[in-house]
Amino acid sequence: MAIGSPTERTIPPHLAGAGDLTQQLGVDPDVGLSSAEVQARLAEHGPNELRPKDPVPLWRRMLAQFQDPLVYLLLVAIAVSVTAWVIEGAEGAPVDAIVIGAILTLNAVLGFVQEAKAENAVAALATMTAASSSVLRDGRPTELPSAELVPGDILLLSEGDAVGADARLLVTTGLKVQEAALTGESSATVKSATALSGEVALADRVNMVHKGTAVVEGVGRAVVTTTGMRTEMGDIAALLDRTEQQPSPLQVEIARVSRTLGALVIGIAVVVMATLAFVQAPTPRRSGSPSSCSGSRSPSPRCPRACPRSSPSSSRSGSGPWPGATRS
Question: How confident is the model at residue 314 (pLDDT cuts 50, 70, 90)?
Fold first, then answer.
């Protein structure tokens, strides 16, 4: 990585000599930067911090509480319940749908509140555990937040210190740095101020210390070369920001089970609603049913012709003691 310097940059800092590097950075290793120079470089390079993620709007955080396969299944259940309620005549209130909706809303509110509390706790913890660095400024050792480091600052490293920025070692005495967070090496790396040559892997740059690592033994002095997102740790953070998050195997399995259950519930709901529609359908009138106008003696919309009234004489005819007999 090239030197993060206001002056012309030529070769990577781990390949440059200590004297040449401090000259390029415009700093005296025995005095450090002046306060005026620090302010100018801080305005040019910005604070020594990794770029935070863009804040998520509140409405998206609330909506994210419903982005779960099991929640989708319950939403389908609400739709089925409301549809069945409408088919049955929409009488009363859809109690099942109301209860499920209330449960989902309560779950979303609780999840939102818990996430907000967790984020606030993490932010407070980050503020309490903010790293600090010992630097040489105006010829005096100074303790300051690592966010205020600028290229050209002279770091004073000792056992237990957290390295606040990428820096080139100038002087070391038995210095060992734990770089597992950066390189994955489990054992501490012995450091040296000797210049290197040729292409050197990051884990083999023994004359460099990097942001996010820690001193476990010895002392040393180094000049800051890069800060913020231009550090090796900043490159890793930028890479992680560009990486798409993949669901875990458990999330994949839950999604599969939820889809299966959802399809099963929808199938059952379709069968139930079809059965209800069939049962409640009106029964057609049979063709052989008795006429509604039987016995009616006057016309009506249902019986346009009045039924004929039986004549008394005809009723009396043939009513003698013998069938077919007539009176003489």
Answer: very low
Domain that holds residue 264: 53-132+244-281
**Helix 69-87 crosses helix 95-128 at what angle (to 10 degrees)?**
160
Shared domain check, 30 and 159: yes
Does some domain include residue 251?
yes
Q: What is the largest CA-CA distance in the chain?
A: 160
Residue 136, C-beta contacts closer than 8 angstroms, at least 6 positions apart: 29, 30, 31, 32, 142, 153, 154, 156, 221
User: Do 169 and 190 belong together in one domain?
Assistant: yes
Coil, strand or helix at 200: coil
Three-state secondary structure call for residue 171: strand
> Token digits for 196?
């290197």
Domain annotation covers residue 303:
no
3-class secondary-structure state, position 250: helix
Same domain membership, residue 65 and residue 26: no
The DSSP code sequence of 6-67 is SS---S-GGGS-HHHHHHHHT--TTT-B-HHHHHHHHHHH--S-PPPPPPPPHHHHHHHTT-
The predicted-structure confidence for 250-300, as pLDDT tens digits, reads as follows: 878 887 887 888 788 778 878 887 887 788 766 666 555 554 444 445 555
Q: To which H or E segment does residue 176 belong?
A: strand 166-178
Distance CA 31, CA 266 (A): 76
pLDDT tens string 5-44: 444 456 889 888 888 899 999 999 999 999 999 999 999 9
Domain presence at residue 312: no
**Of the candidates 201, 170, 192, 202, the residue with the CA atom closest to the CA atom of residue 21:** 170
Same domain, 180 and 210: yes
Measure the CA–CA gap between 296 and 292, rounded to whole angstroms: 8
Average pLDDT over every residue of 312-317: 44
